[in-house]
Amino acid sequence: FDNPVDLQHAGDGTNRLFVVSQRGLISVFKNDPLTKSAQIFLDIREKVIAGGELGLLGLAFHPDYEHKGYFYVYYTAANPLRSIVSRYSVTKTDPDTADKESGLILLQVNQPFPNHNGGQLAFGPDGYLYIALGDGGAAGDPQNNGQDRSSFLGKILRIDVNNSSGDTLYGIPPDNPFAGNTKGFKEEIYSCGLRNPWRLSFDFVTGWLWAGDVGQNSWEEIKKKKKGENYGWRV
Fold it and tell me: For position 219, what pLDDT does the model report?
């Protein structure tokens, strides 16, 4: 594999593993010690700008993937530089091949710098999709995005992919911290004050959300994420 950045399974009982490669490929293979090769599940290299901290960074399968065939990817694109969350579908004829023409963009976030892109996607026990976004890059969060609740940057977002609302292809969970606010805060925000939450996952037993937040200079942080919490970056 070339620069693998994520490893997932589809939760559909087929005992397969999916490897995300930074340049824009997703490979699939049987979860078996005798497996000697992998098949390309999705190739979106033409859409992805990769290198450094840029690229295809995240993959999550719909909780009902077995019936819906939907999965979600997070990647960076150019002109302008931005992070994209997009939904794709598996083909109806081959479970090991995705329909690359089925891409449907749910969310786009412009990026001021090429680093600190976050990139993890994960479905929680509540069925909502969680999206990790870094502070936009450079050093010291020069735009103070982590504390700016009118920005998606420096946040973990939480959206409902099963219900659309208005002009968006997703809904806002009604218990999101800023759902229905009139202050201009992004209603998608679940928690804020993050530098670069590069990876996150849910504990199967407790349902807790854990995130690894890339630190600056001397510190790295592993945090249990709670709804509505401000984790302090950059102050």
Answer: 86
